[in-house]
Specification:
265 residues, 7-stranded parallel beta sheet, 8 helices, binds nicotinamide-adenine-dinucleotide
Length: 265
């Protein structure tokens, strides 16, 4: 038996499904690249935003731009996401400024490209620390408040490298696969509290990180991409707003792949 239209949500609530009005979002890595675009998207949809980045100058510039452009409250916090004391200080600062965190987006990160045999232990550790430990530290700091309020959305920026083997980024791939499984396993723990935990797995997106590729490598990526191009940072906004909002109320423990069919090949 179908529900009657009266039993479905009303027109206004459907139109506002993606609204983030009244929510506070904490975005790590928001000083640059795709997380900067996502932070913009969250603010455009009504969220107040805390930008956390190791690069305090970039984070402050981003906060000023976002606040000026959207009229939302946007503050910056300098922190290395892999450092426990930094994370505690940043989250304390965010809670003092905004009172709570409704949306946590873990996106800070870097990559190192070369054959596995050329990696030092310190380089390997740096990738595990930023991608896996960083997300763990922020989840651990922010989740108790979400559990108490029985609502919240956590979004981890993984990568298609978590699913597909790609040459010369072995430690990065292992770290992103770890982040993906952290996402799934933590989603089980948070589901009884009404808190959702998901990942976004981008393909090749044009950012300062991927600009590090030499021209020949960039051309090769474009040639092997079904769309013939890199993704744009703005193309991450929709998936992030979706996962952050009530539109994704039954979406948890999974990932949204945003790769222009690259991994479908
Ligand atoms: N660009 C892509 O093609 C692509 C694809 C898949 C996944 N990703 C992931 O998306 C995220 C953002 O990448 P991007 O391409 O926008 O890169 P980017 O270099 O433009 O931005 C990364 C941001 O993270 C910050 N950061 C790095 N290490 C940090 C640390 N330890 N503590 C705090 N901040 C730190 C940097 O200062 C920078 O502002 C990363 O996690 C990356 O692995 C990117």
């Amino acid at each position: 038996m179908n529900m009657t239209l009266e039993q479905l949500p009303g027109v206004e609530s459907v139109r506002n499904l993606f609204s983030l009005a009244g929510k506070v979002a904490l975005v790590t890595g928001g000083g640059s690249g795709l997380c900067r675009a996502i932070a913009w998207g969250l603010a455009c949809n009504g969220a107040d935003v805390a930008i956390v980045d190791r690069d305090g100058t970039a984070a402050a510039a981003c906060a000023a731009e976002l606040s000026g452009g959207t009229g939302r409250r946007v503050e910056s916090f300098q922190a290395d996401v892999s450092n426990e004391a930094d994370v505690a200080k940043a989250v304390d600062g965010v809670l003092e400024a905004f009172g709570r965190v409704d949306v946590l987006l873990n996106g800070a990160g870097h990559n190192i490209r070369k054959p596995l045999v050329e990696f030092s232990q310190a380089e390997f550790d740096s990738l595990m620390q930023v991608h896996v430990r960083g997300a763990f530290l922020f989840c651990r700091a922010v989740a108790p408040g979400m559990q108490a309020r029985k609502s919240g959305s956590i979004i981890n920026i993984a990568s298609i490298a978590a699913f597909v083997a790609i040459r010369e980024i072995v430690p990065y791939s292992a770290a992103k696969a770890g982040l993906l499984q952290l996402t799934r396993a933590f989603a089980l723990e948070m589901a009884p509290f009404g808190v959702r935990v998901n990942a976004i797995a981008p393909g090749f997106i044009d950012t300062p990180l991927t600009r590090q590729h030499p021209g020949e490598k960039r051309r090769q990526i474009e040639e092997t991409s079904p769309t013939g191009r890199f993704g744009c940072t703005e193309e991450l906004i929709g998936p992030a707003v979706f996962l952050a909002s009530d539109a994704a109320s039954f979406v948890t423990g999974t990932s949204v792949v945003v790769d222009g069919a690259w991994s479908a090949q």
